[in-house]
């Protein structure tokens, strides 16, 4: 994982100082992240770091994930087919986008959101039945279908106890996505995994056991968390 993160930064042409500025930390902290010291990263730093490297936050949290370079690969592939003048145009545009990204200043925004109950990062919760509670929320609100609050710490470091998260409704998910799911009639937020070991819901906090998806349990995915 550490090699991937360093290679990804260098591939984007970013220095340690630049990544630190984008994430609000010093270059020594970024260097530690690149060497695998991510245990104490807060959720805000994980998201900011992922945005700086243009990757999915799960690529930072889960060493088994492979950082996707598909967009970069496509750019390199098509640029190699252009003449020198057009390659310079691509470079100048990319440089312009990068400079704009560095100068973005985010102003905290407070708004009211509809909260549809709690999901467990622990022992199980019950969602509200179409009776949302209007609560204040400070920060960027992504496009979503509903919001819930996390109870418990099994999804640290991605989600903290009492954190509000946003969800898109769906009954299907890809392996590796963070989902909201009913498991034996209680609602959880977990990572959905389906591989050679079978289908299961996984906690990022390794102190918690996996939850197998089989005929002995009633399970249903009801949404994917929007990061």
CATH topology of the largest domain: Umud Fragment, subunit A
CATH level 1 name of the largest domain: Mainly Beta
Largest sheet: 9 strands, mixed
CATH superfamily of the largest domain: Umud Fragment, subunit A
- The beta-strand count equals 9
Mean pLDDT: 83
Count of all domains: 2
| Gross CATH architecture of the largest domain | Ribbon
Please state roughly what percent of the residues sit in beta strands, choosing from under 5%, 5-15%, 15-25%, 25-35%, 35-45% or over 45%.
25-35%
Q: What fraction, in percent, of the residue positions are helical? A: 25-40%
Would you list the SSEs in sequence order as H and E? HHHHHHHEEEEEEEEE
Class by SSE composition: alpha+beta
Number of helices: 7
Shape: globular
Which stretches are low in confidence, meaning pLDDT under 50 for 5 or more residues running?
A: 65-69
Going across the major beta sheet, what is the strand order? 2-1-3-4-9-5-6-7-8
Rg calc: 20 Å
Alpha carbon gap, first and last residue = 20 Å
Explained architecture:
By secondary structure, the protein is an alpha+beta fold. The chain has 2 domains: 2-102, 434 Repressor (Amino-terminal Domain), CATH 1.10.260; 110-226, Umud Fragment, subunit A, CATH 2.10.109. Helices cover 31% and strands 26% of the residues. It has 7 helices and 9 strands. Helix 2 packs across helix 3. Mean pLDDT is 83; it is low at 65-69.
Keywords:
7 helices, 2 domains, Umud Fragment, subunit A, alpha+beta, 31% helix, globular, 434 Repressor (Amino-terminal Domain)
């Amino acid at each position: 994982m550490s090699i991937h993160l360093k290679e990804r930064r260098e591939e984007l042409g970013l220095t340690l100082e630049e990544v630190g500025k984008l994430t609000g930390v010093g270059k020594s902290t970024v260097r530690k992240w690149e060497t695998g010291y991510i245990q104490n990263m807060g959720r805000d730093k994980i998201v900011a770091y992922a945005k700086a490297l243009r990757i999915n936050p799960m690529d930072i949290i889960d060493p088994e994930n492979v950082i996707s370079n598909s967009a970069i690969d496509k750019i390199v592939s098509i640029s190699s087919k252009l003449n020198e003048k057009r390659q310079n145009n691509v470079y100048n545009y990319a440089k312009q986008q990068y400079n704009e990204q560095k100068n973005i200043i985010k102003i905290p925004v407070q708004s009211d959101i509809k909260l549809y109950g709690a999901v467990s990062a622990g022992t199980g919760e019950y969602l509200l039945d179409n009776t949302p509670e209007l609560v204040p929320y400070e920060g960027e609100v992504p496009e979503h279908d509903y919001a819930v609050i996390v109870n418990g710490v099994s999804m640290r470091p991605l989600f903290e106890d009492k954190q509000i998260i946003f969800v898109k409704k769906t009954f299907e998910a890809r392996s590796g996505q963070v989902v909201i799911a009913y498991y034996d009639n209680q609602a959880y937020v977990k990572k959905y995994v389906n591989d050679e070991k079978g289908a299961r819901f996984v906690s990022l906090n390794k102190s918690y056991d996996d939850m197998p998806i089989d005929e002995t349990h009633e399970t249903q995915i009801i949404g994917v968390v929007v990061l």
